Amino acid sequence: MAILDDSYTVNEPYFNGRSYVEWLESFTIDEQVDITRRRSYHKLIMQLWEIEFEPSVGNDHDRAAEGLELRYRYNDILAKKAGEGDFITPDIMAIFGECRVLEMLVALSMRMYDLMQDMGIYNSVSRWFWEIMENVGFDAVDDSRWGSKNSIEASRCEEFVDDICSDIMHGDGDRLGQKGGWFYINNWDCIEIWYQMHAYLEQYVSSR
After folding, report:
1. pLDDT at residue 89, rounded to an integer
2. For labeling, which of 14, 16, 149, 196 is most exposed (least CB within 10 Å)?
3. Do the beta carbons of residue 53 and residue 98 sit within 8 Å?
C-alpha cells in the first residue's frame, strides 16, 4: 500500500466523519499541479463518500474489504499520535457503515500505485485516482459545476454521479455500452474490478 501521511492532526475529533473523509480526500490531490491551477473537486469527493459501494462480480467484495481497511489505518495514525499505541475502536464500522465508493476507489488507486512502482512513469495515488475519474467522466464536475447547495445544478451533478456509479456497480452494459466500467475496457460488466485494473495497467507495461 502507499505510504500513509502520519502528519494528520490528532486534534481533529475522531468521531467526526468529515475528518476521516478529508484524510481520504488528501490522497486525491495532485501535488504536482500548482495550487493556483488546481481545480477543486471537494463536492464530488463528498458525493462519492455518500454512495455505498456494492460488489457485483466475483471477488469484488475484496475491493470493499480494502476500502474498509483504510478506516483502521486512519485509526492507527490517530492512536500513535496520541501516544496510546495500537488500538482498534470497536465502533468504527458502525459509525460509517458499509464501504463507500470513495473508500474503494482510494484503496484501488493505492493498489495501482504499488503495482506501477519502478515503471519509469509518473506514479502517485492521485494520478491513478484521477485516471479513473476521467474514465467515467467525473473530471467534468468540479466544484464550479455544482452551484450552491440544493440548487438545480447541484441536483443534476448528484444525479449524474449517482447514475454512473449505479450503472457501473450493477453492470448495466445496456446503458454504458460494451466498453465501460471504472477502467473503460471491453466486456467490463462481467470482469472483476481487480482484473479490469490489471488489463488497464497493461497498456503502460506493454508500451515500455
Report:
1. 57
2. 149
3. yes
